[in-house]
Amino acid sequence: MRRLRACLGAAAAVTLAAAGTTALVAGDASGATTALGNRWYAAAPYLMPLDNDPPDASAIMDATGLKAFQLAFVLAPNGGGCTPTWGGTAPVSADTAVQSVINTIRAKGGDVSVSIGGYGGTKLGQACADPASTAAAYQQVITKYGLRAIDFDLEEPEYENTAAIKNEIGAAKILQQNNPGLYVSVTTAGTADGTGWFGKQMLLEAKAQGFTPNNFSIMPFDGGFSGAASQTSALTNFNSILQSTFGWDQATAYAHEGFSGMNGRSDTGEYFTQADFQTVLDYATSHNMDRFTFWSLNRDRQCTPADNGGRTSGTCSSVAQNSWDFAKYSVKFAGVTPPTTTPTPTPTPTPTPTSCKTAWSSTATYTAGNEVSYNKHNWKAKWWTQNEAPGASEWGPWQDEGAC
Question: Contact, 370 vs 328, CB < 8 A?
């Protein structure tokens, strides 16, 4: 679910590509621990280290046994350019805050992957001139943090841009070649059929470039899903797409397939409980899938009425849970038994009734942050919009804030 700029020139890209083989060694020299097994990188849940009330990674590790984290998201600068930033605002080159989080995780025997792209902001594939300069920008991230894993989160609106996807897939291939042993995942939107037209076009681009990552993962949420059965059905259908696209047999396709879920209440009001996660985990392990992850650890804690009131939140799940319940499914996927001493879950708080905002008007113009009511729900605009009814499209400009 993720997105006339000056980029690094081809000469800089070649220089960084040549340095790619030693980038991981340089990271080791700066304090990185011994690499984890691929199963841990495949199980790393997403964590926003600078936004959405970041939880204490050390506390999560102690409570669950988790060792790997998927840090999100690296983007192009909001002001333009082909250099990596955290969230479009914090240059990777000057970062100390995320480095501190990584140091804490590694000091406890864990490690991180970094995810690029996501749903919001401008992506480096959009901002950079070609695959080489895109790869050069990502190589800066790999080198700075001594990374052994990276995730390409390719979704709306970027994956509708053919040139941008060519840059991203080409960059992923360059990084894979120049950083031996680098774990590379590619994450894209999920649909009931597996993935949509743009997701399929992305797979065809990978085939055309001769690029095979460790896995292609889909996100079966925010698309009319209802619980685990709809998600496992989508994973089965996606497996067929991988077979037909790459000429793989079923087992090979599953060995290159991943699941990236959303814990609790999704952006469109779907609910995925701990029981749903267990069902999908059983499916993933029984089919020898390569990846099981979720969005996000920032949400892996119970809401209070003040936090949420029954709406989708970036900082809590909107379902009854103990803190870090969902992280334990990633631990199980990695092949480890989580600690068993946990408190009894407290009930989901009863949402406080919410008053309705001013009614939506088809003639009014709305900008990001404007709130309206429509069909007894409140909605918030994600970007500029006019005459687009809230809820008309799951990928539309309106975010459902819940009943009113």
Answer: no
**Beta strand 371-374 with 90-91: parallel, antiparallel or unpaired?**
unpaired
272-320 pLDDT, tens per residue?
Answer: 999 999 999 999 999 999 999 999 999 999 998 766 557 899 999 999 9
Top pLDDT among 341 and 176 is at: 176
| Cβ within 8 Å of residue 26, ≥6 positions away | 143, 146
What Rg, from alpha-carbon coordinates, does the chain have? 20
User: What is residue 7's predicted lDDT score, i.e. its pLDDT?
Assistant: 29
Q: What is the four-CA torsion angle of 389, 390, 394, 399, rounded to 10 degrees?
A: 150
b or e along 328-363 (b: 16 or more beta carbons within 10 Å of the residue's beta carbon)?
bbbbbbbebebeeeeeeeeebbeeeebeebeebeee
3-state secondary structure labels for all residues of 201-240: HHHHHHHHHCCCCCEEEEECCCCCCCHHHHHHHHHHHHHH
Q: Using alpha carbons only, give the angle 1, 167, 217 rounded to the nearest 5 degrees.
A: 35
Task: Indicate the DSSP class of residue 174.
Answer: H
Q: Residue 75: which residues within 8 A CB-CB, separation 6 or more?
A: 3, 84, 85, 86, 87, 88, 116, 117, 118, 121, 122, 123, 124
- Cα gap 228→280, rounded to integer Å: 6
Integer Cα distance of 399 and 404 in angstroms:
14
Q: For residue 358, which amino acid is it?
A: T
Taking the CA atoms of residue 234, residue 220, residue 176 and residue 58 in that order, the dihedral angle to the nearest 10 degrees is -140
| Angle of the 274-286 helix axis to the 327-334 helix axis, nearest 10 | 20
HSE (side-chain half, CA atoms, 13 Å) at 311: 21
Given the residues 155, 158, 205, 270, the one annotated as active site: 155
Helix segments in 247-361, DSSP class H? 250-255, 274-286, 327-334
278 vs 48: CA distance, rounded Å: 24
Give yes or no: 156 in active site.
no
Q: Quick check: helix, strand or coil at residue 356?
A: coil
Alpha carbon 253 to its chain's center: 21
